[in-house]
Amino acid sequence: MIEIQSKLPMQGVTIFSVMSALAQRLNALNLSQGFPDFPAPPALLEELSQATLDGFNQYSSGDGLLTLREQVAAQFLKRDGLQLDPVSEITITPGATIGIFSAIQAIVHAGDEVIIFDPSYDSYAPTIQLVGATPIHIPLTTPDFSVDWNKVKSAISAKTKMIIVNTPHNPSGAIWSKQDWSNLIELIQNTNIVVLSDEVYEHLIFDGQQHYSALSFPELRHRSYVVGSFGKTFHVTGWKTGYCIASPELMKVFRQVYQFANFCGVTPVQVALANFMQKHPEHIAELGSFYQAKRDLFNAGLEQSRFKFTPSSGTYFQSLDYSNIRPDLSDVEMCQYLAEQHKIVSIPVSVFYKNKPQDLRILRFCFAKKDETLIRAGEILSSI
Description:
By secondary structure, this protein is of the alpha/beta class. It has 14 helices and twelve strands. It has helices at 15-26, 42-53, 66-80, 86-89, 96-107, 124-130, 149-155, 178-188, 230-234, 248-261, 267-279, 282-300, 331-342, 371-382; strands at residues 29-30, 90-93, 113-118, 134-139, 160-166, 194-198, 224-229, 242-245, 317-321, 344-345, 347-348, 362-366. The chain is globular and about 55 Å long. The chain has two domains: 15-40 and 283-382, Alpha-Beta Complex (Aspartate Aminotransferase, domain 1); 58-279, Aspartate Aminotransferase, domain 2. 40% of the residues lie in helices and 14% in strands. This is Methionine aminotransferase.
C-alpha cells in the first residue's frame, strides 16, 4: 500500500449530501439543498434541444461563447450602467464554484491570508487552503448577519491578499448595503487587496431593495472579481454554467489558471442561454417578484408557528430560529429531529462556520419549491 497524505484531511461528505440522503431515506419533504423542484422555462429547454440539433456539440471558445458574454454585459449595462468588454473582461465557466476556485488560485499564494465571512459557502476555505494560504474567518453579527467592520479592520494585515464577499448571502439571505461597500472601500483603498464577490443570487432581491455589485463602484472596478450563476437565475442548477467578470489585468491571470482547470463550458448550454436571454428579457426582470411570492407563501404558512424569523432580503433561502421550540437541541440535532419526527429536512446554519457558535439555533430552508411543497412545509412546521 502506498502512503497517501490528503491535502484536505478534515474534509468529509458535505452536509448537503447527508441531509438529502436523509430526506430520501425517510421520504421526507426536502427543503435542504438549494435547487428548484419545478421545471425550467419550456422555451429555454427548447433552445437547448435546438442547439444540439443544430450541431453545437463541439468545444466552444475557452473563454465562453461570445454571444452569451455579450448578454452578460448587457445585463450589467442595464442594471448598473456599467460598460463591460465581453472579450477581455468576461469568462463563461462551468458553474460558479470553478470561477471562485480559479480566481483564488490566480491571486492567492502560499503564506497569504484571505478574509471570509462566516457563515460562508463551503468551497471558500478549502480552496484557500489548497494554495497554502490561511482563511481568516470573521463571524457575521446575528440575528441580521451584518458585518462588524471593526473586526474586519483588525483582521487586515500585510498578509491579506483577498476578501471574499457574498451578497445576497447564502445561507442568511442578507444583502450588502451601499454603506457596507463604502466601509470596505475605506479599509482597502490603500492596500493591494483583491475583492472576490460571489453574486450568484444577484437577481433574487426582494421588497424593493437593490443589489450592489462590486464592479459598480469605481474604487473596486480594477481590483474585483465578480462571479455569477445562470443556474440560479434560470432554474437549471444542473446545467452548471456561470461566469466571472474582472478587469483585463485580473482576467488575464484568471484565464491562465482557468484554462487548465477546465478547457471550456458546455457549448449547447451556452447557445441555449444566449438565445433565451435575447428573446426573453422578461425572465430576469420578473425573477425577484417570482421568488418573493414564494418566500411570502412559505412565511405565511409560518405565522401560527413557534419559529422566529425575519423575511429573507434575497436568495431563495429563509432562516428560521427555533429557540422557542427546542433550545436544548443543537441545530444539527434539530435537523435530525425534524427529519425523523416530522418528515421535513433543512440545513443547520452552524455547518457554514469554522468555529460553530454553541448558542446558534437557526435552520436554513430553501423556498425554491412548488407552491404545494411550500404549503405542506408550512403545515408541518406550524404543527411543531
